[in-house]
Amino acid sequence: MLFTSMFGLAASGAAAQGAFPTRPIRITVPFAAGSATDIMMRHLSQHMQEALGQAIVIENRAGGAGVTGSEPVVRAPPDGYALLMAAVSSHAIAPALRANMPYDVLRDFTPIGLACTSTNFIVVHPSVPVHSLQELVAYSKELPGGMSYGSGGVGGSNHLAGELLRLRTGANLVHVPYGNQAQAVNDVLAGHVPMLIYTVAVLPHVQAGRMRALAVTSERRQLQAPDVPTAIEQGAAGVVANSWFAFFGPAHLPDVVRDKLYGAMRDALNDPGVAQKLVDTGLTPAPMGPEEFSVFLQAELAKWTDVGRAANVRL
């Protein structure tokens, strides 16, 4: 009798998971409305809710580089109705650099899949007498005070890209952190700071000749700037520093629910119309399934922990 009851409960649970979803899904974006993560999720959500047959409600909870909004998802029931679209800052950089975190990325979340990436551009003011990454490294070593570069602040992907470049090539780079990234851009445009590491947002300045792009810190050249070589192509082995955006659920999310959610996201990313909208905003669709993404995530945590320790960067 007990066996029959247990079997009935198990079958009922399996049926419920198989029918998922039966009500709206809430996805937390732990960044402000209008951020890259938010824009990406809104492009994906319409296609995904059509595939899943339920409404997707996006909730913005900004703060702490994504950590503040991510933490409540840890306590949500693992049923697929409370999810998270996170980023490298909240799920790789902060855990690697912060002494105290309210969650353990590998223990407290179920990785559903990678959605998109964006990368950093290494650019200089046109007055700087270098036209390649190799020339930049050599030139920085000739400067007694080193080559200053601006970024969006300590511990950001722009800053860490510079630290990674310094560690891998021996470049004599000096970090100039800005709380306001727009001011960093303006200072490089004015020639006050010779170098900047920033996102695809610098491309209009590059195309207008106000900045010179030397490299991107991605594995492959970017769709938005196919003429700009990667750092790896120019001999800077291991200099890969991308921003990335990925889908998570609470720990112990059932595989059948996880896989259905990933399938809906993957299909949205593969839709030509959605993909073009993402590219137009500076993102690169990069769907990666749960198992492969789990391996990728562990590698990212290890990489930024090593860089933070070697460069003595703590948040």
TrEMBL record:
A Pfam family for this UniProt protein? TctC
The superkingdom of the source organism is: Bacteria
Q: Which InterPro entries match?
A: BUG, Bug_dom1
Question: Which family does the record claim for this protein?
Answer: Belongs to the UPF0065 (bug) family.
Name the PANTHER family on file.
BLR1237 PROTEIN, TRICARBOXYLATE-BINDING PROTEIN
Q: What is this protein called?
A: Tripartite tricarboxylate transporter substrate binding protein
Q: Which organism is it from?
A: Neoroseomonas terrae
